[in-house]
Amino acid sequence: xNKQNVIGLVLIFFVLLGFSYWQTSRxxxxxxxxIEQEVKEAAENAAASVDTLAAPEVVETPxxxxxxxxxFSAALQGQEESHTLRNEVFTVxxxxxxxxxSGITLHDYLTYKKEALTLFDEERTEFYLxxxxxxxxxxxxQCHFVWIGPEQDSVSGNDSLVARMRLYPDADTAxxxxxxxxxxxxxxxxxxxxxxxxxxxxxxxxxxFVDLIWKTRLESLEKGKRMExxxxxxxYKPVSDKVQNLKKNRDDKEELTTPARWISFKxxxxxxxLIANESFSTxxxxxxxxxxxxxxxxxxxxxxxxxxxxGLPYQxxxxxxxxxxxxxxxxxxxxxxxxxxxxxxxxxxTRWISRWAVIPVFDFLESKGLRYGLIILIxxxxxxxVIFPFTYKSYVSSAKMRVIxxxxxxxxxxxxxxxxxxxxxxAVMNLYKKAGISPMAGCLPMLFxxxxxxxxxxxxxxxxxxxQQPFLWVDDLSSYDVLFYLPFRIPAYGSHVxxxxxxxxxxxxxxxxxxxxxxxxxxxxPGMKFMMYVMPIMFLGLLNSYPVALNYYYTISTLIxxxxxxxxxxxxxxxxxxxxxxxxxxxxxxxxxxQLRLEEMARRQQELARxxxxx
Length: 615
Fold this sequence. Notes:
The chain is an alpha+beta fold. The chain has 15 helices and 22 strands. The relative contact order is 0.11.
């Protein structure tokens, strides 16, 4: 392994290390040793057991004092009713108190504790309107609505169900505020219409906006809470700009001054997004972390959205609520750029590789019913085939450098002094030129692989397809595996030992050892040789808490690289390389513009050195 290969690998390592440190440096400390809990039985599928034709569940609400100045005072008393509708992908729970969705339980997903996975849960989510009526602040989450539901409780295919909940002021049924919910057969979106009917005499005439308050206390749904936190924040899509997000590694807030198409509270693998039919004209967004005794607490997300109010006899605002998995193809199918929430890297080339190469191939292999461990293996082999020409070119360059090394050593002996450095560099460059060797030939192919490495580094932690998928002895490819727990925590490593991270490090150490034996030892500087052995250890600390899929990919990628190097080594004859170099030396060499500039620079530096000596 020559100097250029080593430089390339070192650059790749430090870019990965620096980027990861930037992403995780400000996140909360590693959670304390996981509290042993009994795994609860998976929640019953509410959709299969609830019959809306039966009497709805009724919850008594304490009687509140009547406020004669509040036109909605009568709605403050009443009985809570729970109703349920379901489609092919989730079950939607409603509560007449607040006239709101009280939970959305996904059918095909469970939490890492094997419990039912519910988004928009009323115990953790607030969703209500706030406005002035007769000089009183009215919050719809404190009011009881009247349920007007469909006759059936389930829907599939292209059909839909419509449920209405109305809030009347006192006994006047000609004036009301209405939520209309549309549940479609095979869709993670719920249509939401807000209708204000004859409310101009209720809501203050000088009210330009009705506030829509949406707050959620997010809890961890995955085993790797620290990793999940790095992917959790508020995303939003300005109408005339690209998708943006609040900072992930610290508390952040944003006051939107331009219309937004949608706002999303996004976690690693799931999100809830409120999508405007046209746009949300104003919104104040926040995402922050507070001290919580609950070990499952993740972050708080808030959105205060301004709904324009014009005081007309009838006003309707349409929106949709997405509650489902962050699966690229599903989000992309809506044509709203929701898929841009899936973090595929900051560098455009990394995103391009993931979007146009990795994801299509991954989806194609998945459609064939292959197991995900095999899919990752095939994907790795295909990527290695694509970059093989660059690997071959790198190794040929390494062979040339190895053959010509004795002549380079002679030049080093000829110019031993520090002030002769430019002369030495000029002589070496001339030798390379005559031999037909490009000094960057070994380094550039290594750097070319950097976007692919970074694409995999971002793809696997974001791929919901790997979530809770078993492979060998692990039960979740999207999270880390635990060989055993340590009785203490090691900084930058953690309190557990990942078997796949350990295999990755051992494989890279063996690869380094074997390739250095295969190559001439004179080609590697002692400092670089030491760095090559240190790098796998540093990667072990970096990737110990990363998904099994990523460490598995790096392990087999290293093994395939070694196999390629072994085969290329057998195919390349050093004697033929040496003969080709000698032939190249006989050919006339035309100096490049770069070489001319280098020689001119060397001449000037030598002239400056002579002038300083004369002084």
